[in-house]
Amino acid sequence: MIKPTNYRSYMKLLGLLCACLITSGCHQAPTDTPLATEPETGQVENKQTDEVLSPSEKIVQDNLIYLESEGVTIEKKEALDEMNGEDMLGLLPEAYESIIGPIDSSFYHTDSPYSEGVKKMTMLEVIDNYYVMPESELDMPVNYGAASYWLMTLQDVIQDRQKHNQADEATPGDLLNRINVTHSLYLWSEIQGDINRYELEELVEEKVTVNQPLTKLTAAEMMVRAYEDNIASLEPSVYTELTDTDNVYTQKAVDTFYFTEDGLFHPEQTGHRDDWGFMSAINYDEQVRSNLTLDMLNIPFGAAISAVTALVKTYKDETIDLPVETIVYTENSDFWHVYQYETGEYGDVNCMPAVVEMALRFQGQSNHPTTEELRNEYPEHGQGWTDGVAETAMTKYGVHFEDSWDIDSETMTTYLDKGDLLYVMYFLPEEMSIGHAVLIKGYWQIGNQVNFIIADPSINEPGLFSNIDAIIEAEKMMEGMSSHVPRYFIIKNQVEQL
Questions:
Q1: Looking at the 3D structure of the chain, how many domains does it have?
Q2: What is the dihedral of CA 230, 156, 9, 137, to 10 degrees?
Q3: If pLDDT is split at 50, 70 and 90, which confidence band does 297 have?
């Protein structure tokens, strides 16, 4: 399996693990936390039913009315009813579609047992397509940590779609949006009436615009002021002495929202909006949740609806210039897929002979050698094959192919558009000393971002587009190819062979 290596991908996997952390018993917040305490005063009358509503119930009712007016379909619950995985993963795509537009899940493989919500969240890559979520987990309550991760990741996806033609440099507006959604998630029962949404000038002293590049100094000031205004006062760190700034906000932010090992804060540093280590909204969210002792508690319906309402209100009015999305892939790979670990004694190094067998199967050859037989014929002392050995085997057994040294996404996607497959050899992104071989069977392009859809002999699990496939960023794949074997084989489709 190809594992992600960047910080955001690591947090994705961590978030998916958080989704599995299910607390026992009913949702019950600590007695010193106002979240789960129904106020005795401030009750209002529901004029439609003559029912007396608590302020929390009134907030939920108002949020439901707003979301329904925006086309978000919701299965109604009581304010403190727990949300399970299916509930959350059904609600969040509804919010996305209200902001951006429909998600086409028709490409998702037809044998998938998952609901539309889970499929759509996977299509958005909020759920990693490597992760197989058991149905039993979807029926379990979701804790605040998992809900927070999904909300944060979904905001990245929304902004990637909305701003695909713009620089991905983080802005004060990006951080402001995430702070507002965080507060709506955790402080929902304290909010009387409308969602408490900050304006930028409330969190910064100097004149700063929402669309200018965000610096770490501005981010520190925004988070410290928002935290102190809503949660608790912060003291300058007693553990880290900053040597490149004496600003009070940076002193309070270090060891709380930011971390450094060399005493340098880099106050004027800018960064990307989806770099969670730079913009640090995820750390802000975690600190708020921890202070309110909500880490292991399950998320109630009222909190989920409050956060989704803030999400829709925050991004609904943003200018939408959607990227063109293209999906091209060769179907029926289940019929020619080979799982290398079931190919005999050398299964752990049989990726290349397995890909040769897949190429033979793909081209419809019924009388072909198995991977194990290919290994026995070309033993290579039990080591991995070279591209020369693979070329010899494919030539001998009649694979129709040609080779290319042209490693660029435009050329490679042109072959895939024709229905050809690409036999590639590359270093794994997470371990640039380990070679691997796969068949690229298609691509998924959103704007300028190209992802290859691969048939990987080391994977035997349900994928996104068929029962067995995986996704890898084209740039990472091509980097790994260039560092390992800088050529590839074009396996011709059956029409081209005629």
A1: 2
A2: 80
A3: very high
